[in-house]
């Protein structure tokens, strides 16, 4: 993190996209692309839902008034029917929202499991552990540290300032030794 701002910025814009540079059409497989697709799909779905729902409501009200003028139904029966239609419509709208939330949660869970299956991102400090019968086998393909880890951390005379503000040091002549098995926090 000390000198990785530019790398992280490039990685972020690669995955998220930059709406200011090219809003439409967004690059595929970016967050902007998926967000635009979701917005278009939801606006189309909600528009269709409103059109069908309100169309059914007004159609039943129109037909109910025809039935009332012909004497087939009383005004109380028509009012009761319309209130049932309202209740059913609101319940279906709520159900549609909840189904959308379930699919969003499934998508998020899928991404979390993909990240968990990736393993460590810095392969330089990790090596494959081979406990199978020979090279190229699937058995024992876990990762383990290339060197023995003691759990001890030492900082000696550390100087640090963010590249964006080099004149404002964050750490100056900072030294710290944290023995294995203990807990320490640098706050501020």
Q: Quote the distance from N terminus to C terminus.
A: 16 Å
Number of helices: 3
Describe the sheet with the most strands. Answer: 2 strands, antiparallel
Mean pLDDT: 77
Total E-strand runs: 4
Poorly predicted regions:
122-126, 130-141
Order of helices and strands: HHHEEEE
Global structural class:
mainly alpha
Helix content bin: 40-55%
Description:
By secondary structure, the protein is mostly helical. Helix content is 51%, strand content 12%. The protein is built from 3 helices and 4 strands. It has helices at 5-16, 31-69, 75-118; strands at residues 126-128, 143-145, 153-160, 171-178. It has a two-stranded antiparallel sheet. Strands 3-4 form a two-stranded antiparallel sheet. Helix 2 (31-69) runs antiparallel to helix 3 (75-118). It is elongated and about 95 Å long. Mean pLDDT is 77; it is low at 122-126 and 130-141.
Quickly describe the structure:
This protein has 188 residues and is mainly α. The protein has helices at 5-16, 31-69, 75-118, and strands at residues 126-128, 143-145, 153-160, 171-178.
SSE inventory with pairings:
Layout: H1 5-16, H2 31-69, H3 75-118, E1 126-128, E2 143-145, E3 153-160, E4 171-178
Antiparallel strand pairs: 1-2, 3-4
Helix pairs in contact: 2-3
Features:
two-stranded antiparallel ribbon, two-stranded antiparallel sheet, 3 helices, mainly alpha, 188 residues
